[in-house]
Amino acid sequence: MAAENSKQFWKRSAKLPGSIQPVYGAQHPPLDPRLTKNFIKERSKVNAVPLKTKKASSFHEFARNTSDAWDIGDDEEEDFSSPSFQTLNSKVALATAAQVLENHSKLRVKPERSQSTTSDVPASYKVIKSSSDAQLSRNSSDTCLRNPLHKQQSLPLRPIIPLVARISDQNASGAPPMTVREKTRLEKFRQLLSSHNTDLDELRKCSWPGVPREVRPITWRLLSGYLPANTERRKLTLQRKREEYFGFIEQYYDSRNEEHHQDTYRQIHIDIPRTNPLIPLFQQPLVQEIFERILFIWAIRHPASGYVQGINDLVTPFFVVFLSEYVEEDVENFDVTNLSQDVLRSIEADSFWCMSKLLDGIQDNYTFAQPGIQKKVKALEELVSRIDEQVHNHFRRYEVEYLQFAFRWMNNLLMRELPLRCTIRLWDTYQSEPEGFSHFHLYVCAAFLIKWRKEILDEEDFQLSS
C-alpha cells in the first residue's frame, strides 16, 4: 500500500507534454493491436535505465511504494522470521502425515452411504458450486427462507472457462474466511458509511487498496458521485434518480425504431452479445435487454458523442457489483430471472447513472475523431520516453506506433486485457482518485509496459492481428 507521503505523487509534476495530433480515421483504428508471437528469444538481462530526472524517479518511487497494493492475502502483522515458520524436521513431517492419513481413513464415510445421499438429490439441483458456495452452504435452507434473493440456484453445469477468472474470487469474498486484518478493514468501512455525513476523503483513502465485497456497492455509489454523503438524503436520492431513469425509458426508448436512431440502436444490438462472451451471465436475454436500454438512453442523451464501440464494456463492472448486492454466490452463472422486477430495475438504473458519471470525465474519448484518446496516447508515449527510454527507443526502432496498441487501452480502459474481477478491483482505486479514469489510468498503462519491459525488448517482430 502506498505511503501517505507518496499519495498522488504524479500531481506534483507538471502536465504531461504533448498535444492533440490529428489522426484521421482514429474512429476506426487497427483492430486488436496485439503482440501475436511468443517471446522465444533469450537475451542477457538488460540493465535498468538510469534515472535522469526527478519525474522519472517519481514514477519509480510510485512503483516501489505500491508494489504490494494488489495483495489481498497479505498480513502486515505476520513475522516470517519467527520460529513458527522454520523448516520442520523431515522425519517429524512424515510421521505426522502418516498419522493424519490413518485418522482420516477411520473417519471416512462408507461409499454406500455417500451414494445414497447423492441419489436423493433431484438431478435438476446438481450444479457445480464455487468455493464460496461451500462456505455459504451451511444453514442455507434457513437463510433462503428468510431472504429469497440470496443464494439463488445457479444455472446448471457451468462450463469450465480457463481464460476467464471467476468473478467470485474478489477481494474479501469466497472461502477462505476473512483474516483479522480484513475484518478490521470491513468494520472501518462500515463505520464510515454509517456516519451521518460520510467523510469522502477518508473513504477514498480506505478504498485505494481495495474495497471489501460486502460494502463495494454503496462505496461505488458514493465515490462516483451518484449518492450524497449525507445518509438521510440517500434513500430519497435513489428513489428520485431511479424514477428519472425509467422516465427516460418511457420517453425515448421507443424512438430506437425511428430512422435517425436506427444506426445507433443497430450497432448497440450487435455489440451487446460480444460483451464478455465467455461469461454466461451476459448472454442471458434479460441482461442483454438491460444493457441495450442503458446504452441507447445514454447515447441519445449525449449527442456530441453518441454510442461508440467500447462504451458497452464500461457497463459490466457496475452491473456485476450492484448485482452482487442481492446475490452471494457466483454471479457469472446466476439466472437473473430469479430476481424480482423491482430489484432488476434498481440494478439497471444504478448501473446507468454510475456509468454516466464515469463517462462525464472521459467523454472526449468518444466525441468525433476521439481527441481524448489521441491526447492520452500521446501522453503515454511521452511518459514512457521519460521513465524508460530503452523501451521507448525499441518501439521507435521497430516502427511500433503507440496508437496501434494503446488505442484500445484508452477506449476500453484495459477491460479487454484484464479479467473482469481484476477490472473491478482496479476500479476501486480508480474511483478513489479524483481523475482516476483519465490521468491515473495513464500510469497504470505505463506500469504494464515497464512490468514486461524484458519481453518487449526481446521481441523484434511486432505483428498486428487483423
UniProtKB/TrEMBL annotation:
The lineage of its organism: Eukaryota, Metazoa, Chordata, Craniata, Vertebrata. The keyword Cytoplasm does not apply. It holds the Pfam family RabGAP-TBC. The keyword RNA-binding does not apply. SUPFAM superfamilies: Ypt/Rab-GAP domain of gyp1p (SSF47923). InterPro entries: Rab-GAP-TBC_dom, Rab-GAP_TBC_sf. Keywords: GTPase activation. It comes from Felis catus (Cat). Residues 210-434 form the Rab-GAP TBC domain. This is Rab-GAP TBC domain-containing protein. Residues 105-146 are annotated as: Disordered. Residues 129-146 have a biased composition (Polar residues). It comes from the Eukaryota.
